[in-house]
Write a structure and sequence with these properties.
This protein has 321 residues and is α/β, with parallel strands linked by helices. It has 16 helices and 9 strands. The protein has helices at 9-15, 20-24, 27-40, 54-58, 80-83, 91-94, 96-108, 120-129, 137-145, 147-170, 188-194, 196-204, 224-230, 243-250, 269-283, 303-319, and strands at residues 46-47, 64-66, 70-72, 113-118, 175-180, 213-217, 234-236, 255-260, 289-293. Strands 1-4-5-6-7-8-9 form a 7-stranded parallel sheet. Strands 2-3 form a two-stranded antiparallel ribbon. Helix 8 (120-129) packs across helix 9 and helix 9 crosses helix 10 (147-170). The longest helix has 24 residues, at 147-170. The structure holds coproporphyrinogen III. Coproporphyrinogen III (CP3) binds at residues 1-6, 15, 20, 47, 49-52, 65, 67-71, 116, 179, 181, 295-296.
């Protein structure tokens, strides 16, 4: 996740101070930015350069992405009538640029390309709050107070996300990741009642594609079981739960992705090595562990630490079979 980004000088040089959505809409640049981390490190997969709000912008929702903040929307969606602004998505017509980028990437790449989408709860939070939020109070308030609007909004988002994911696989992506970084704001019962049915419909809508799917959340230690029930071949966990405990809760027949704390990479190498080995020890050499950070790479991360981390994980994984 956020494999590309500001920790790479060549990324900053290419992006300049232009709008990130403009860069995403320029396939040559999206291709180049997707490839940049792979030129620096022998990563096992690439993730296409796009953003979770792209399919919403593609259907006319006027998000902009502010540096240091994230997606911002001047006219938030808070009523049943507002939900009508979410028209259906025709990927080839509404967002051809991402599909063009994917098609040229799969010709060039020697590793699998991951396509992705934001999950309905996280997208709903940006739509309802009008921007990033610490407590998601307006979102959760609407969810509890106005189930009809909530259900309509979540349903409409599933109807946007499913074609968005399907089109990426049709263009050549060989795995899909669904990002739900803000869903950890919910209690398990609220997740089960208000999110799980929509997530299940989402995963049902891509089940026939025969590509592996990763279902990722942040702060979701208490939501692991309902997230697994909702779907995903692998569940992505952040660093707030030890990997072995998360895997026990999920059961070892579910694959797991995670979960080095991204801030560890700001420390000297011996600390990075110790913490990364701890994650690998907790995975216990089982197949079905996808080593990753618990959340995105921070802009201040030294590239050398990432390069050494990739080598360490490869060396250890080969040794342990
Ligand atoms: O790794 C990759 O390059 C894949 C492409 C990707 C981006 N965003 C590009 C991007 C992916 C997978 C995302 C996911 C994303 N975007 C999420 C879910 C995962 C997560 O990290 O929680 C969320 C919540 C967003 C929304 C978003 N877009 C935020 C919060 C920000 C950061 C704003 C900031 O300046 O702090 C963005 C901008 C963004 N999207 C960047 C990247 C590489 C940051 C660099 C830039 O602005 O040029």
């Amino acid at each position: 996740m956020r494999q590309a980004g500001r920790y790479l000088p060549e990324y900053r040089a290419l992006r300049g101070d232009r709008d990130i959505l403009e860069t995403i809409r320029t396939p040559d640049e999206a291709v180049e930015i997707t490839l940049q981390p792979l030129r620096r490190m022998p990563l096992d997969a690439a993730i296409v350069f796009s953003d979770i709000v792209v399919p919403l912008v593609a259907i006319g929702i006027a998000f902009r992405i502010e540096t240091g903040r994230g997606p911002v929307l001047d006219e938030p969606i808070r009523s049943l009538r507002d939900v009508d602004r979410l028209r259906s998505l025709e990927p080839e017509v509404d967002e051809p640029y991402t599909l063009m980028a994917i098609r040229s990437l799969v010709r060039e790449l020697e590793v699998p390309l991951i396509g992705f989408a934001g999950a309905p709860f996280t997208l709903a939070s940006y739509l309802i709050e009008g921007g990033p939020s610490r407590d998601h109070a307006t979102t959760k308030g609407l969810m509890f107070a106005d189930p009809a609007t909530w259900g309509a909004l979540m349903g409409a988002l599933v109807d946007v996300v499913v074609p968005h994911l399907r089109a990426q696989v049709e263009a050549g992506a060989s795995a899909l990741q669904v990002f739900d970084p803000w869903v950890g704001a919910l209690a398990p019962a609220a997740y089960r009642a208000n999110v799980l049915p929509h997530m299940r419909r989402l995963f049902d809508g891509i089940a026939d594609l025969a590509v592996p799917t990763i279902h990722f959340g942040v702060g979701t230690s208490e939501l692991l079981e309902p997230m697994r029930e909702a779907g995903g071949d692998a569940i992505g966990v952040d660093h707030r739960i030890p990997l072995d405990r998360a895997w026990e809760r999920l059961g070892h027949s579910t694959a797991i992705q995670g979960n080095l704390d991204p801030t560890v990479l700001l420390a000297p190498w011996d600390v990075v090595e110790r913490e990364a080995l701890d994650v690998l020890d907790r995975a216990g050499g089982r197949s079905g562990h996808v080593f990753n950070l618990g959340h995105g790479v921070l802009p201040e991360t030294p590239v050398e630490n990432l390069q050494r981390l990739v080598d360490l994980v490869h060396t250890r994984s080969e040794r342990d079979g």
